[in-house]
Amino acid sequence: MILAILQHIMLFLLGAAISSFLSALAFRIYQEYPVRKMLFQPSHCEKCKTGLKWFELVPILSYILQKGKCRNCGKMISPEYFYAEVFLSGTFLIFSILGVPIINYFVVTMLFFISIFDLLYNQVPRFVMHAVMIMGVIWFLNRVLTGSNSHGFYLDLYFPVVEAFLWAALMSFMNLIKKSFGFADILTILFIGLVSEKMLQPSISFFYGALILAIPSIFFIIIDPAWRKKYVPFLPFLAIGYVVASLAPDGIVFTIVSL
Ligand SMILES: [Zn+2]
User: Fold this and answer.
1) From the CA of 48, how far away is ligand 1's center (Å)?
2) Where are the domains positioned within the chain?
3) 8 Å CB contact between 105 and 47
4) pTM for the model
5) What pLDDT, on a 0 to 100 scale, did the predictor assign at position 247?
6) Ligand 1 centroid vs 44 CA: distance in angstroms?
């Protein structure tokens, strides 16, 4: 019991730490830092360049204690960083409590990383997207060659890939009518297909992602039609959809879909 609680706490903290590292990394990639600086330069305020003290590096907590501002110059820190930390650490905690397989932590971390780019900069750098796709292909080939997947059942191996291709085709088709999805969105659903170990996982990810995105969007468009023209990043919603799909036990998957 104590060990289990300790594990939950450790994973929660790990999620917060990874989130904090990847957010900073995304910022540095976007700002085109040289590789050495990108990985090894100590954290600092981007405006006044003051180095951050250890207590300013505690994820989630330091943001709350400093009320979202730099201690030195008072520059506001984007709240997106805070939400990102809450999202990833919260997801790791829930995954830990529900005993979700390790691969899901890996996938959600990848989805999280590309979502940061989409959320903050409205685009994902090509090489980041390529790296994610290569990891997905390696993971898939590994399962094909070793015949190992958690259920030992072929449908769980190939079905999600077929599903993902169908969604990708639908998204490309919708783009012909009205440009709605970016190239990164389409690649990401294929990535989810490659690493899914459950039937319908890509479909549920897409369905819930789109649903969670659609409800507030419709609300905003009704209030102010100008919202229709705004860029809405889809990847963060796809990441949330994937978390929902990971939590649904196999039986429930069919129940939800048949509702
Ligand atoms: Zn500052």
Assistant:
1) 4
2) 1-99, 123-259
3) no
4) 0.87
5) 86
6) 8
